[in-house]
Give the backbone structure.
Amino acid sequence: MSNSCSLITELLDEKSSSLGFMELLNTQDVFGTSVLQAGKPSTEPSIHPADQDLKPRVRQPPEVFNAPATPNTSSISSESNDHEQTKEEEDGGGGGGRVENQKIKKMLKPKKTSQKREREPRFAFMTKSQVEHLEDGYRWRKYGQKAVKNSPFPRSYYRCTNSLCNVKKRVERSSNDPSIVVTTYEGQHTHPSPHLHRPIAAIGPPPPPYSGFSPNCAATLPSPPQTAVPSHNQQHFVNYSVLLNSCGYDIGSTNTATQPRRFCSKPSPSPLLTDRGLLEDVVPRSVIKEE
DNA sequence: CGCGTTTGACCAGCGC
DNA sequence: GCGCTGGTCAAACGCG
C-alpha cells in the first residue's frame, strides 16, 4: 500500500563511489525521483526528521546524509568509510560465562580505547512502509532495541544470522512520519542471500547487471551495495520486494525469511507490474500458479 | 530442541 | 568528572 520505497544512497568517499551504486542513483532519476547528491552537508534542512537520529552521532566526518527526494520516496544514506575493528578480535573462544569472561577480558585486555571504534560503511534508507523490517533477502536476528530520543518509536538492532557475516542494520521509524522507516545497514554481506539458494534464483533469464537495472526495481533496494554477493542476486531480490510491495502486501517483517510469504492473488494491475515476465522472474511460477 | 525475540544491564563515546 | 545516549550483550522467554 503505502510502500513506495526508495533508496538513495551515497558514497561519501567520492573517489570510491562504486559505479553500481551511482548507477542506481541515476536509475532513480529515470523515474522522476530526484537524485540526491552525495557530500551534501548534513545541515540540509530537507532531510527527513528521522535523520536526527542518524545525524547526531556524526562522530566522523564521513557521515553524510542526503536530502530525500520526495516525501514519498525519500531516502537517505550515510556511510562511514573506515573498516571497523570490532571486538571480534577477542576471539579467545567465547564459551560460557560470557559476562565474566568479558569483564575479565576487559580487565586483562583493555580495549583499544585509543582508537575510535571504526565502523563499516553505513547506508541508510528511508522507506515508506508499514512494516519496519523490510525484507531484503537476508535473514536477520534482532539483538537489541532501544528507545530513541525525541522519538516515540524504538530503534531495533539486527544482525545477519550468518555467523560469518558481520552485517548489521538498524531499523527505526521516523518520529515525524511514522509511515517512514529508516533502515541503516552497516557492513557488507560476505555470503549470498539465503533466498537465492531457492529455485527462485534459477527462474527467468539472468538478471542484468547494475547498469541494466530495471527501472521499477531501482527505487527499492533495502540493501546496501554488496561486494561478495553477486549483484544480480540482490537485484533479483529487489525485484521481488518491489513486486510484493506493489501488490499491496507488506514486503517484509522480522521473520519474513522464515515466515510463509504472501503473493499477489492475481497479477497486480499496477502499472509497474504489468510485466508478468518480471513477476515470473522473481517469483517461482509454482507459487504464482498456486494463487 | 532450535531459533528468534524481548528486555534489562552494561559499556563507550561525546558534550557540557 | 558526570550525565546522556547509542550500541551491544546475554539470560529469559516464546514459538513452531
Q: What stands out?
A: The domain at 122-186 of chain A is CATH 2.20.25.80 (N-terminal domain of TfIIb). Residues 1-76, 78-116, 197-291 of chain A have pLDDT under 50 and may be disordered. Chain A has six helices and five strands. Residues 117 and 152 of chain A are 28 Å apart (CA to CA).
